Amino acid sequence: MTQPKPRNPTDPLAERAAEPGNAGIFRLARSDLPALKQAADELGQAFFSVDLRRAGNVPGFIAAFNRDLDFPAWFGGNLDALHDCLSDFSWHPAPGYVIALTGCETLSANPTSFAAFNAVLASAVDAWRARNIPFRIFYVQDDPAPVTRQDASPGTT
To answer: Cα–Cα distance between 57 and 60 in angstroms, integer?
Structure first.
């Protein structure tokens, strides 16, 4: 059996992934995505990537999450059901969760749908934070800016 590679304690991605109470919505430069996945893998946390390129409205967001997170058969296909699955991963147990949202450029096309979608994400973040279980959502962007914490309130990116 191979030993996990030691993490660089100064790596902000590894540190963010290691903090149990650190639930939130963040921005991530696309170039940092492999390091984030590696940090989640080393910690045994579930890592999901959701492709939102074709998700221009609430039904599109829901369909993308259902497809890329492989929701259970009982998933109801609406915002309440999305919240239920994002707040309770009993169908995919892990010590923490990382969700990378790619193709986010389409989100600005429908601000009303995005606000409703982001409200669900923020509520799920709050549920995990209350349980002190790592749950982080990253909006992956082509911008080479470093990782920054974003307010998990509805309507922010």
So the answer is: 5
